[in-house]
Design goal:
Length: 316
């Protein structure tokens, strides 16, 4: 048994969620992949995978081994790529997943700059408000808002954060009054936002006297897409509670007015998330570095984002 090849086969089976897809990625016959994993299990004396007719899953030993196995494979790849006699070029395909709002408001308006910097990177951007499975969908990197879930196989690099703003049109406030405190919200209408996956409306969360307070609003309409949510707010359909970067221009122009400014609200992180196997990818590093620098520039120009110091990774 070639232990290194068996480790590669095992890692690909985990990441592709099956022997068939792993064989396509590696260019090796499925029976060969299966035999390599079985030989690895025999060598280790433990079962790494739970096999059923419908799906594969990691055993506790398999999860532990995968974590260490992947780190070894990544370190070997990184060692080969950083040999003094080698050169690296930012080239190849890069698949990125971004929410509609982040893409349209912050990233796509400046994406020509990235393409000019790295003309040999073939960039594909998927726009999706749901949390996609990066490994199953073969996505190299995602830009996500919110606190990333702990994962043994994903890395999250924080690139910025933003604040929530509660606001409404002047016309709405003239008709219904301006809420001054949380108890006033019971008399107000709001635009609801329901979770794309669960279908449930998301409560509003405020920090009052150091404690988190959940408010369930009376919704005149509910949507599951961020830009549509802002549009409903601009049509005076109710109060909206939204990321600061989405409404900064509307606030400056007077189309929206912020309320409840005295209440502190938890900031929301923006992170670049990618599989641990892409840790040494220079194309992923190039994109995440660029996004971090882009957000830092926007944070300097406006108050809609708080930047995170960018530490650019040196590449040859």
């Amino acid at each position: 048994m070639d232990r290194f090849q068996a480790m590669q086969a095992f890692a690909h089976v985990v990441e592709q969620a099956g022997f068939g897809k792993a064989s396509l990625v590696m260019g090796v016959a499925t029976p060969t992949i299966s035999r390599q994993v079985q030989q690895l299990e025999t060598h280790l004396g433990v079962a790494l995978l739970n096999r059923t007719t419908r799906q594969l899953s990691l055993t506790p030993d398999g999860l532990h081994y995968y974590d260490h196995c992947k780190r070894i494979l990544v370190d070997v790849e990184l060692a080969e790529k950083t040999l003094p006699g080698t050169t690296q070029t930012h080239r190849g395909k890069l698949r990125v997943d971004i929410s509609h709002a982040l893409a349209s408001q912050l990233i796509l308006p400046a994406i020509n700059q990235f393409i000019e910097l790295y003309p040999q990177i073939q960039l594909t951007i998927g726009l999706d408000d749901r949390v996609v499975d990066l490994i199953h969908d073969n996505i190299d990197c995602a830009i996500r808002t919110g606190v990333p879930q702990d994962s043994q196989i994903l890395i999250a690099r924080r690139v910025a954060s933003f604040e929530w703003i509660t606001c409404a049109t002047p016309e709405y406030l003239q008709k219904y009054g301006t809420p001054r405190q949380l108890t006033d919200l019971a008399a107000h209408q709001a635009v609801g936002y329901f979770h794309p996956q669960s279908g449930k409306n998301i409560d509003w969360v405020f920090i009052s006297n150091g404690e988190s307070v959940n408010i369930r609003m009376n919704n005149t309409i509910s949507v599951n897409e961020t830009l549509a949510y802002v549009t409903c707010g601009l049509k005076s359909l109710g109060l909206i509670r939204v990321a600061s970067y989405l409404v900064q221009e509307h606030l400056r122009a007077g189309r929206l007015v912020s309320v409840l400014d005295q209440l502190s609200e938890p900031s929301v992180p923006v992170s670049a998330v990618y599989p641990i196997g892409n840790r040494s990818s220079i194309t992923v590093r190039a994109f995440t570095d660029w996004v971090g620098e882009l957000f830092a520039k926007r944070a300097h120009e406006e108050e809609c984002l708080q930047s995170v110091q960018v530490r650019r990774t040196a590449t040859r």
